[in-house]
Amino acid sequence: MTTESLPLALTMGDPAGIGPELALMAWRRRSQEAAPFFLVAAPAHLAKVAKKIGFDAPIIETPPEQAASVIAEGLPVVPLENAVDADFGRPDPRNAAATIESIARAVEAVRLGKALAVVTNPIAKSVLYEAGFRFPGHTEYLGELAKAWGEPGFPVMMIWSETLAVVPITIHLALADAIRALDADLIKRTARIVDRALRARFGVARPRLAFAGLNPHAGEEGTMGREEISIITPAIEALRREGIDAVGPLPADTMFHARARAAYDVALTMYHDQGLIPAKTLAFDEAVNVTLGLPFVRASPDHGTAFDIAGKGVANPSSLIAALRLADRIAR
User: Fold this and answer.
1) pLDDT higher than 60, residue 80
2) Can you tell me whether residue 268 is helix, strand or coil?
3) Model-level pTM?
């Protein structure tokens, strides 16, 4: 099977959330030019979802390598081994094994050359924690799965849209823990991965990286905190010496308006919400979560499980469709 014909591997996400119905909607809204994909899910549960939202196309059980040949007829589904028993909007730790299996099977399909890239539907981390899941989130679990390639991987989260791309340097940590975890080595390692990925995957010849400060007004010359002086600025200067186009630290409250965004390709922020609030405000329905620093491409819609609307047929598949398109584009 050539790279051009390889399908994308789409995970189920939490079966009580909107992931399964988003997959059905994405199939319905696909174009002739869209990349083929298959869903790793429980066919019986998917049939239940399809009936609930009035989806009448066939659900076709298939191995990954046959997905591209059947997607014109219906949604290709690679069946899970773990059972799923989920009610709409009611997350249940008993389904955690199936949720995790869906992710692992999708990654394995890429490793075996049966899929081009992984696209993940939203999970509920708190539900997985109840079942013993020991990773802070999707991103960190994917880093563990990357070890099957013989590479440790250093997963870096990027929220990408045509409007704004942001990378939080610390990710799924409480704010107090994120501040303690921030150091120059983490900033430099993250920035190097971002620079390489923008060149190799996104075709940016010389990526422009803009770094936010940690404190208000980027520390105001040390009067509002000294992390900019002791950690962030030395890291940026070291990156410049390596030939990376890096600017900052910039005050986070003035670096996301339109004129400021025109001066850089990606904003690197010091903690999760510092970057994701502007990204989701500016491009909520179009933003895509892309994991850099892995030996495979992974993209995801930039929203959660939306348990409150699951099964109602009102979920918006735009972000998932954008994730499928972006994964296909950067993987090929």
Assistant:
1) yes
2) strand
3) 0.86
